[in-house]
Structures are given as structure tokens and as C-alpha cells.
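A sample follows:
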Amino acid sequence: MKALPALLLLLCLPEAGADEPWDIAARSLPFIRDKGLAWIEDRQCASCHQVPGMLWSLNRAARTGLDTEHRPTSDWTPWAADWRHWNKTGDKEGVDKVSAANIDTMTSLLLGSEEGAATWKDDFRRQLLKNQQPDGSWKAGGQLPLGKRPARETHEVTTQWVLLALNGLGGDPLPDGVLTRARQFLASAAAGRSTEWHAQRLLLQPDSPVLRETLLKFQHEDGSWGWLVDAPGDAFGTGLALYALARSGMTADDPARKRAVDFLRRTQQPDGSWAVPSTRARDNNKVSKTATYWGTCWAVIGLLEVPPRLEQPPPARR
């Protein structure tokens, strides 16, 4: 009979790994917060990589009740949304020129925001609509065109992020022709080389079993996805895939999700980050600080995107 209390205790324990995605993400939050704030203090630049990624991942963590220690992201969002903080010559160039070169910054801030209506969102909408190209696309800015994929695919990726961001704003219907021109541009696209491209296709059509299976077939045996579909797996590609698949209905107990979570658990570094190779062609697949930060943010976003069975997250960590 003495063994009965111990047996009852074991029966009351939660299933091993039941909240593992939150545990993994929680270990990354200090890295994301500290490096993101250091970037703001040192560079005074929002950057399409650092600050929007920080805000998106921390907003997601706050929404799940996971991050209770950082200053409210509302303190940082207005600063990041101010076009004068998108490059050092903003005041001289003016809002229109700076915005045209920072399409990706605007879409990331819009998609990662947990706020309701805001003046800066209305401003972003106007700038995004103003900067649609005659062929229906939106052009990637910064160093994104230097990536390891065809230039057209990079612009297709930016175009798809814009459509997702505009769709998420709601409000007034888009002006006539905006969607038509964008769809015509995307309709002529060849199959993308990057997981990001395929994830976006699924995000735009989350009910498509064909797009879902296409993304799943790029998962490696170790549970990961690479940023490029034929490259070794990394946190960047894996986070993007988890995010899109969760939004298309992948459940918490799906074997593909479990393998991906296990990959992220095994490859997470002691500081909570993941080493990610640079997405720039000239860097020859070397691990870079920018890709590591960006990939870590995406791993957290993917881990915390809530599938149906995870609607009630575990209690916030202290």
C-alpha cells in the first residue's frame, strides 16, 4: 500500500512534452528581447530584420501569456512604425521615398502587431497601395534582393506578404484592380525555391490540401525545413513552415509538427537562439548574426502559433 501515493502522483503529472513548444519558446525570449533592444540603442534603426521580428515574436508570446516581464510592446511599436527610424537619411529623403524602400518593414510590423486600430496602420496601407508596381508586384527592399534565390522570387515573396498584411487590416475594400494585378503577377510565377514562398502560398490559400502537402513534402527526415527547400534544415525555414501549417489547421498532435518541435528542441543553443546560415548569396552559407536573430524570431512565432488543440496555453512562466 505504501507504493499507492507514489503511483497516484505519477498519474497526476502532465504528459511529458505536453507544453514543450512553450518551454522552447520561453528560453528564446530573453535573447530576442535583449538583442532587439541592443539593436535599437546601438543603431537607432528599426530594420526589416531585427525590430519587426522582435515585436512579432514578443507580441505572440504575450498573447499566449508566456512573456510577462518585458515592457509592453506598445512602448516600442510607435518608434518602430515611425519612418524616420527606417534609415539614417529619412528626414532628408521624405516619407514617400523611404516607404518605397521599406515595403517589407511595413508588412512585418502590420502582421506582427497585436494592436487594434492605429494611425500608423492607415498610413502604411496608403503607402503600400501607392507602391504597387505596374506589373502588380511590390518590390523587396534593403538586402533582400541579395538572397540565395532568384530575384523575381524575392519580389513574389514581398508581394505575398503585402497581400497578407492588407488582408489582415480589414476596413475599406481594396481599390479596384489591386488584387487582380497582384494575382496576375503571381500567376506567372515558377515554383519557388524557398520554404518562405511555399509557406506564403498556403497562408493565402489555407484550405488548399495541395499547397499543404507541397509544403509538407519539403520537411526533412530530422523534422526541419530549410530556408531553401533543398538546403539543410534551420530554425528560419522550420518556423515559417510551422506558422503556415498551423494556420491551415495542423493539429498539435500531427506527427510532422511533433518532429519539427523536436528538431527545434535539439538544435536550440544555450542562449535560446538557433544558428542560422545567412540568406545572402555572397555569404556562402556562413552563420550570420542577422539570420540567427531573424530565424530565432521565426522559430518562436512558429512554435507559438496555436493549432486547435492548443487553444489554452500553459500558465505563464515566472
